[in-house]
Amino acid sequence: MIGVGQAAAWTFGGRSINEFSKHGNHEQSSATWFDGKLFRVLPAAFAGELSMELSLSLITIHATVQAARRWARTTCCAWCAIASLEHRFVVLHHAARSLEMLSGRPHLLGAKSTEHLRDLMTDVHVSTVVTQPYRRLRNGWFHLGLADIAHQLPSDSDILTPISLYAGVDPLELDAFVDLDLDAVADGMNTWLLDPAKDGNTIFDHLRQVAIQKVVDTHAPSSSASGLVIGSLHRAGTAMYSGASSICT
Ligand SMILES: [Zn+2]
Predict the structure, then answer these.
(1) Is 0.90 surpassed by the pTM of this model?
(2) What domain of life does the native source organism fall in (predicted)?
(3) Taking the domains of the chain in order of start, what are their residue ranges?
């Protein structure tokens, strides 16, 4: 996982693209794929209480959080490790902020969903990241620039300096906090997602596991593997994957 800051450093540093491509997370770990029909899967998700649009939005947030937990980390160099932390922090903040905004719209939720969302937002980790000082860190570090702390920035500032100036923690503390918080969001959303509908069915009663090689063989043997999987799963209706151990067990 390579961040914008990393790309800029390489660009302005005059490094070659070949050298650039060696960095980042090249982990080839497997993902477990499922497919099913949207009109069957979505009514069984989130206790069967949400609209199709809201269910799809929450599944997207959930998948983004799981992907960040699993793949947005690398040890190739300090720059990439920092870029990975930035990415995980932004994903976490936006996911938690989205859930917070949804909690202010109870008319969109049923009784069980209200309870799940309340549990999520009262989790000390999830509720903390949407408040100060982490909100200031997100805004300053990634959105509004550092003008408000310009007078505090030492001459040898780097991309890590705003962490302590905004949030009052060192990068290792932030890293640990972000991982704990991503776990809390993922686990809470997972529990909510898998709450069965009134008929007792969960999404997995309407999904079947797909071997990627089997999809390749069945649907488009002459295409490249990556394009194939996407095309086939779209035809099937929907696709989900296990970005981490807790999502699909
Ligand atoms: Zn690197």
Answers:
(1) no
(2) Bacteria
(3) 43-204
